[in-house]
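Data availability excerpt. The first of two example chains:
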Amino acid sequence: MSLSNPDDWKTVLSVLALVLSIVSFMFTRRSWLQSNRPIVSASVETHAGGNESIAYNLVLSNTGNRPAINVRIRVKEVEIDACISE
């Protein structure tokens, strides 16, 4: 294909513009999905303390732009036993 014809140049530039537009759209969509996702943070706070033990609260907070739904906390029983025994 020779690019001596101006229409050939227009075709090549149009195809390049289309490819750039598709890549830009995919990047924009990915960035939008990343910025509009729910972000759930967990922290452990002291509720009450005594001579023998301390009670803790597990606090979950949604800091993202969207509400977090169907949040599940999974922990192994061995890990809970390890925390309690310390």
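And the second chain:
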Amino acid sequence: MRKNIFNKIVILGILIFLFGLYLLLSENFNIENFDQTIGSKQFNVLKWSKSIGTSKYKVIIKNNNKIIKEIITPNHELILDDLNLTSNSFTVDVIAYHKLKRQVKRSKTFNWNLPLIQLNKEEIPVLSKSDITDVTINLINNANQDNYIIVSKEGKDLKHLNIEENKISASFFKDLDDYLGTYEIMLCQDYNDKKIILHKTYLNIIPKPITDIVINQPLNNSEVSLDDLIINFSGGKYADKYYYSLQDQDGKIIIDKALIDSQQFIISKDYLNPEEKYTLIITGQHFLDNNVTKSVKLNFKVAPLNKVSQIISTKPSGEIGKNRAVRLLTYTNDAQIYYTLDGSIPTKNSIEYKGSIFIDRDVTLKAIAVKEGMIDSDILELQFKAVEKEPVIYLSPSIQNENYGVKKAGYTTEREMMNKISDYIEERLKQKKIIVYRNHPDMTLSEIVNESSKYDVDLHLAIHSNKFNGKVSGVETWIHEYEVGKAYEIASLIQKALMQIYYNPKGNRGIKYNNEIDEMRETSPKNVTNGVLVEIAFHDHYKDAKWIVDNQKKIGYAIADAVASYFGR
């Protein structure tokens, strides 16, 4: 018995000794050297000793306290001929990952002693060859006459440059059939009739990124009725093909990469089940390179069978600017929304929702969606505290770049001219301490109204010029037929201000009403808050076009002052 105990103690001692020896040996590794001797078999190779029991190494290169390279390798050496250094000194961290989940780290600092090659740009985003520009080459650390530069792509040398040449011309890339991709720019020297790469860097010519894709309908995490589902999306500029996939709540693919022929499409209700969750993925492919993609995901839930889907609000409960708007919607087609503002239960006899609900006091808003033959939606309840806030305006100059004006009058395009005038509107409004958000010329109309609706704004102000047959002239301002309050008052002030500086007193075309049920209209209360669209004269009429061109600042300031006066600024 005692002998067995003794044997076990001896075995345990041996095991402890071996484990301690293993730990000791695993700690016994160091970074050995970085050889920059031209002609050496280990040229530009970083070496470190092997750490016992290591499965992999992580190598981190730092230059001026910034990580410039990070590599994981099973080996204990690494070629470093492509470091993007801004100074000669660099630090190497090697971390050994052991099979027992231990980590051992070693660090060492080296100096780069050879010439370095730098480019004025690492990337050229393009839509066509015309976007390619010259690439300037800068050499550091005194390159000599024995050095030369090679431009290579996919292992094939394409161009040889002498050391005195300090640029790669745009024409070189444009002459290539396949100009997209990654180029190696290598600083070389011959040694014993062999090309030695002293240093190299990379240039990427890539397609301009696809802009964000935005799903406008339905909203993320919303509930939809069990019906054919209308999907509307925007964005994705530079994509020429779109696909969508549909997954159920367990991740099972129901529809896989179906081609979309427009930015509005329908998912058949046959693919949907009541009270289940789904994920929709829309992917755009770049027109230059189908491998370049952009995707967006949307989660939604299907309502119980024969029940109107839940109501969605553009604003959550909480503080809201006094007299600012809340908008409601449901994804059940032809359902009507009714609401109350006193906390009472909404019914068909409550206030019928027709667009924006303006909050001028603290309220409890309750709403219900109703459709004949279906169960009413769940009641939406929101509590708002109305507070005074600085005026906020969403400024939306025209995005119509193909609407040309009278060239002899100096009028270019509606987009360009209205953005110039909007520069003055924005400048003046900010002088008067009014917060301004603004669209971008490359946005689509759906992106504009969606962005505007995200902000807690007092006014959506669209700036346009008009056209008809070249003979009609004058100024007019548009609002929606439902907007008889604030929007009408602001539109009247703008119309009056413009007529005070317009060259023809008979050109007052007045306030006009848009009653079209078009979800993309910038005056629709279903899309924007207090939508006002100004038509600043006719750009296809010579005198009107000339007046716009010659009075940009005057027009911009007149509109801004009219808006500011409404807010007492």
